[in-house]
Amino acid sequence: VNNFETDLETYLNQNVFVGALSSGTAALHLGLILLEVKPGDEVICQSMTFSASANPIAYLGATPVFIDSEIETWNMCPIALEGAIKDRISKGKKPKAIIPVHLYGMPAKMDEIRAIANQYEIPILEDSAEALGSSYKNQKCGTFGDIAVLSFNGNKIITTSGGGAMVTPTKELKDKAVFLSTQARDNAPHYQHSEIGYNYRMSNICAGIGRGQMEVLDQHVNFRRANHQFYNALFSKIDEVEVLTEPNSDFYSNHWLSAILLASYEQREALRLAFEAENIETRPLWKPMHLQPVFQNAPYYGE
Ligand SMILES: *Cc1c(COP(=O)(O)O)cnc(C)c1O
Question: What pTM, to 2 d.p., does this model score?
């Protein structure tokens, strides 16, 4: 486990510390605990994401406040974010954290999001579960947050079968995460606990798989980027299809998933069924969290 953490620290190359955990969801849960999110608090979260970005907010009895995406990266819209923060503060509820996501590996607009977070002094919990190998302005995704999260679930760019990691700017935060992930055992010869702990540490077997996977990470990213190029060329002649592409050279996506936009629901469903008949798998993208039955009462800011 320690060596896998060192591999990731070396790869991310930003003076960060990595704690290997049992899943990305566990890392998000511990991240919110370290940012002192308590019952009744509000946490801002990108709406267009996988449910695991938002569920840990509910684990803590806090309320998610969902934010719309912008059109270029499909990630958290900085304008909607600032509007939401101002409105929540005017209601006497200053959000405790902001969870932006690098959806499908596409980096979010981190300069704008960071500027707003700093202005209102709200920490960022960066959900980089889909974006190991992506970068923004030559800085690796997973190093922008006050705390960041990686996932090594079976479907991600590299896998440990199941696993995740927390990335922190200080050793103290990492040590605290590891402490909480190993049942919060005090430093005493007997079994003493002053805090509630969790069983969230990565196993050595999984970490061993992860060390092997680190050797093929760049290769996996290159394959996915080649797939993206292929789809870009294929669809360039078809006006109704838009491929999710980096807005400019500041953005470098691992293209974990190639995603396209179609003009209508009917087109999308017809295309999905046509592909299926040819044994080619396609799927609808994440359904935004503010449209999910389980989060129907959560505030939402956007169009
Ligand atoms: C996969 C994923 C997670 C959760 O990671 P697990 O390791 O599966 O718990 C969180 N956020 C996003 C955006 C994801 O895609």
Answer: 0.97
CA distances, 197 to each of 113, 184, 203, 239 (Å): 32, 4, 17, 53
Please tell me the residue having the least CA distance from ligand 1 atom 11. 53
Catalytic site includes residue 156: yes
- What spacing in Å lies between the alpha carbon of 144 and ligand 1's midpoint? 17
> pLDDT averaged over consecutive 10-residue blocks of the chain (303 residues)?
98 96 98 98 98 98 98 98 98 98 98 98 98 98 98 97 98 98 93 95 98 98 98 93 96 97 92 95 94 97 93
What residue owns the CA closest to ligand 1's atom 2? 129
Quick check: 167 and 18 in contact, CB under 8 A?
yes
Nearest to 130 by CA among 151, 147, 144, 113: 151
The reply to whether ligand 1 has any atom less than 6 angstroms from the CB of 153 is yes
Q: For residue 53, how far is its CA from the centre of ligand 1 (angstroms)?
A: 7
